[in-house]
């Protein structure tokens, strides 16, 4: 699939696959008004799509939707990191380089490298008047905010929205329950 050649050539289409490939192959520069990004949260869990019967009963059939487990050596994180360093977004490259030096080559760094290369592409497709909402959880929100500042400009920070859950997720006894997610708004 090549880039959309006519204005709106990709509208009303469902793209299945890695959003990085879709962004690069099917979405024109400065063509999107609104982006809501709900990426994996680096939760170290696998997620399945569960099916129901035509009558609405739960079926045993399921398919793996995605793995929310990141690893520096196995997931192409080094390639994503190198792509960010070669990108024209020098602030993102500098920030990612500093993060790697600070936290090392670990699962979080793999997640951040994979997110950074995608955020750069999202910036490319967003119109100058567009808005981006990034939904994440507190385990990576502080890192993602710094990446957003580097890619979109700190001056374009719109807001941090705390999405309070009615039922907190329980954790090990040494930590408080997690009761919110974070949504960052970038308005260019």
Summarize the structure.
Helices cover 34% and strands 31% of the residues.
Q: Over all CA atoms, what is the radius of gyration? A: 18 Å
The percent range for strand residues is 25-35%
The total beta strand count reads 6
Q: Specify the structural class.
A: alpha+beta
Q: Can you tell me the residue ranges where pLDDT is under 50 for at least 5 consecutive residues?
A: 1-7
Number of helices: 5
* The number of domains: 1
Helix content: 25-40%
Main sheet: strand order: 1-4-6-5
What distance lies between the first and last C-alpha atoms, to the nearest angstrom?
A: 29 Å
Average pLDDT rating: 81
Q: What letter string, H or E per element, gives the SSE order? A: HEEEHHHEHEE
Task: Name the shape in a single word.
Answer: globular
Task: Please describe the structure with a list of short key phrases separated by commas or semicolons.
single chain; 188 residues; alpha+beta; four-stranded mixed sheet; two-stranded antiparallel sheet; 31% strand; disordered N terminus
